[in-house]
Amino acid sequence: MDPLGEMQPSKAAPAGVSLWVRRHPGLLLILPAVLVMLFVGIFPLFYSLGISFFRWEPKIPGRPFIGFKNYADLLTNGEFWLALRFTGLLFVSAVALEFFIGLGLAILLVEPIRGRRLFMPLLMLPVMMVPVVVGFTWRMLWDPLYGPINQILGWLAGHQVKISWLTNAKTAFYAILITEIWQWTPFMFLVLLAGLSSINPELQEAASIDGASNWKIFWRILIPVIRPVILVAVLFRTIDVIKLFDIIYVSTGGGPGYATQPITFYLYRMGARFFRMGYTAAGSWLLLIMVSVAISFAVRRVGED
Amino acid sequence: MRAEYVQHMKRKRRIKTARSGARYFILIIASLFFLFPIFWIVVTAFKQPGDYFQFPPVWFPRHPTLAHFRSVQTTGVGGYTALRNSFIINISSTIISIGLGAMAAYAMARFRTGGKNFSFWILSQRMLPPIAIIFPIFLVMRTFHWVDTYQCMILVYTAVNLPFVIWMLRSYFLEVPSEVEESALIDGCSRIGALFRVIIPMSTPGLIATAVLAYIFTWTEFLFALILSRTNVFTVPVALSAYFGSEAQFWGEVGVLSFISIIPVFTMGLLVQKHLARGLTLGAVKG
């Protein structure tokens, strides 16, 4: 394992544990970090797998073993599917829009431009915002009467606009979508810009000397070259959309009805408000299975690059 | 011939100015879009209570006030207490996770400890949806009577940060050429000596960037803090969320707390902006 360690002459042959430790100094070094992650990551995960087979609810005395009943209940629960549907729809539309806007901005800033040092920080601020603050801020902005969005729309329309963005099921989706895009487009932009900047400019020059059009250079050369970067960006967005909770908590509260309730928020309500531990645990395992099936493929790809 | 050439060059230049004009136009629109909400929350902090319910909305308060900087502590759960809690929890968990993470990252970079499977295992920790582990953690902490204590929050945030810290530091350590380290070892440095005298000084920018980003990630974290804190160790996001539901009387306090909470994060974030793309993707994309 350690070629340099073996070169050192051992004065007295240490026995047992200390010999083993000297042969594998790395294991000792990773041990503290692994212990913390086992205690706060892996153990809770399997604890929750155990809980998921029991009926653990405040109203029911004892904690009877019920096998897969919790899972069956979830899969036949309309609200669970509604929450999954919201998360899925939001994921597809948000990531697609963030990708195109982010790519556009990255293309504009990858060539040298005066004022780049000014634009760059402005375009990365939202990533660093506390999501709870983002939720509050946009709740003010969307306000039907006292919010500036309806005011600006009013100027454009030429008459007063009174859209109740967050209390109408249809507009609430778009309001959350735009809030999400506002915070995370900068992430796409940063990652794609990093990808584009790493491309050797000679590649483009060679192609354009060979008579390739800008359009062709873009689709045939730039996009394939930065494909791993795109994959990484989409992977991280997937994880974050599944985690979506904070913005919802302080803006719509999942409403109106269940129109803007993401899956994490649904499971949170089941656990924290109704204390249905078994049911919540089963729900998070279902979510986990769906996510890992989707992600494991992508992670392998990313790891290979 | 010559006149034609001049014409051609003029047209080319015109296209170029038009293109760069369009570039600036789009960039300015985008900047306004990304800046406006931040402007709004900052202005909210200085508005008079009457300004929130004005139609049309007040963009620039005529009589800005500092009153909310005082009332933010007396209303809700206490804004400055939350800032102190957040600071204590985040600084401690950042330091601990950098310490433990640097050890693990060094082992992985130099001894290939655990190999590829181990690094994937760590990556999968970062991918874990928090909702899948939060309630079991809560139940465990409750049996220890650790809910709503600093040690609980620091431990959990250390675990949240570790996968990120390890992946980042590993990628920075791998950039230090092993020849440099080997020559230090030949010169009589011990392994630990080489780590502190060669590896760490050579990856200082990366270490600082990692620490700053770890701090930012836990500073903005909400779900764990919401469930694991009650009345003692609530963090800034939790204090903010406490204003939710008390319908709109507290916009000024929300504005102040938001304003104070984003200043350190923006300052530190902009200092390490070159590392941001790399940090947000755990070192997968080098900025």
In short:
The complex is a heterodimer of chains A (305) and B (287). Chain A is mostly helical. Chain A is built from 15 helices and no strands.
Write the layout of secondary structure elements.
The complex is a heterodimer of chains A (305) and B (287).
Chain A: H1 3-7, H2 16-23, H3 25-51, H4 69-75, H5 78-110, H6 116-124, H7 131-142, H8 148-157, H9 169-197, H10 201-209, H11 214-225, H12 227-243, H13 246-250, H14 263-273, H15 277-304
Chain B: H1 2-45, H2 67-74, H3 79-110, H4 115-127, H5 131-143, H6 150-174, H7 178-186, H8 191-202, H9 204-219, H10 223-228, H11 236-241, H12 251-271, H13 276-280
Helix pairs in contact in B: 1-12, 2-12, 3-6, 3-9, 4-6, 6-9, 7-8
- In N-to-C order, the SSE pattern of chain B is HHHHHHHHHHHHH
| Terminal Cα span of chain A | 25 Å
Please count the helical segments of chain B. Answer: 13
| CATH topology value of the largest domain in chain B | MetI-like fold
The percentage helix of chain A is: over 70%
Largest sheet of chain B: none
- Give the low-pLDDT segments of chain B: none
Shape of chain B: flat
SS-derived structural category of chain A: mainly alpha
Task: Find the count of extended strands of chain A (DSSP E, 2+ residues).
Answer: 0
Weakly predicted, low-confidence segments of chain A:
1-11
Approximate helicity band of chain B: over 70%
The CATH class label of the largest domain in chain A is Mainly Alpha
Oligomeric form of this entry? heterodimer
Structural class of chain B: mainly alpha
Could you name the CATH class of the largest domain in chain B? Mainly Alpha
What would you call the shape of chain A? flat
Radius of gyration of chain A: 26 Å
Largest sheet descriptor of chain A? none
Return the average pLDDT of chain B rounded to an integer.
86
Share of β-strand residues of chain B: under 5%
